[in-house]
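Appendix B. Worked example

We walk through a single record from start to finish. Start with the input: the chain for ER membrane protein complex subunit 6, Diutina rugosa, length 100.
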Amino acid sequence: MSSSTYPTSVAVNVAKFNKVNDLAGLVNGAACGILQLEGLNGFLYYAVSYTLVNTLFVIISCQGTPKRFFQGFSVFANGFIGNIAGFIMMWCLTGALVKA
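Next comes the structure step. The output line below is what the pipeline stores for this chain.
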């Protein structure tokens, strides 16, 4: 049993993953507002950017093997739903500021 499978290590890994996704959601929301994307295009941008950030996270931080650092892939699905609020907030705020 490697140290990355201990519950404490998994909790730390999930916390780091959530911080990366929180920041990426805010930055991508601002980018979406600056680009003046609206409706479905904005949500598609979110899905693509979220997938890209997670792929880079797995490649860089997990060295391509997320099973060593996380228990299951539910953390990726939960992050998708959990970070959409911050994305929408920044998307609307930045979009309104650009239009003004």
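Two observations about the output. The chain is about 75% helix and 0% strand. The first helix runs from residue 7 to 34.
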